[in-house]
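Dear colleagues,

As part of the handover before I leave the project, I'm documenting each prediction I ran so the next person doesn't have to rerun anything. This entry is a single chain, and its sequence is reproduced below.
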Amino acid sequence: MEKIRFEGEAESVELYVLDSTRLAGKEYLLVSDVAEGDGDCFILEEIPAEEDGVNVYRSVEDEELLDYLAGIFGEQLDDVDIAY
């Protein structure tokens, strides 16, 4: 399982990438704070790199989009139960 370090303004965090999907030309990641077992999951939207070549990721906050993406990830990952 791939582990990615996300750098924020005040801190950095390492998250495990559980899955990804592309929807309407945008890339979304399902990430977790643990590699296996129960943990906190987040759905992140990729913002393509600009001049510096570094992609930016932000949390999906739109409830309808979040529900839709959770359904997609739930179908793609048979052994994962996404609840929020």
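The chain has one domain: 3-76. Strands lie at 3-7, 12-23, 26-32, 41-47, 56-59.

All the best with the project,
I.
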